[in-house]
Amino acid sequence: MIQHLLREGAGEGIDNELVSVAPDGFEAQADWTNLRSPETYLGYAQGHNLDSPDGVAYDEPRSYVAPESLQLNTWALAGTGR
What we know:
The protein is low in regular secondary structure. The protein has a two-stranded antiparallel ribbon. The N and C termini lie far apart (47 Å). The mean pLDDT is 80.
C-alpha cells in the first residue's frame, strides 16, 4: 500500500521490487549474546551507577562534573541539574 501511494504521489520512478536491508551502525540490533552492559535507567527512582564525584542530589539543585573517564556500566552528568 505504501508503494502504491508513493507511485500515486510521485508518478514515475518508484520501483515495485522489494529491497533488502543490511542494518549496520545505529540500525543494527544489539549483540545480546555478548552484551556486557545492562539497560541504563536515568529516571529519579531507577538511576543506578552514576559516576559523579559528589553523588546524586535528590530534590535540590546541584552542579555536576563528569569524571575524566567512565568505568564500564557507569554514566555521568555535567552541568546544573535539578
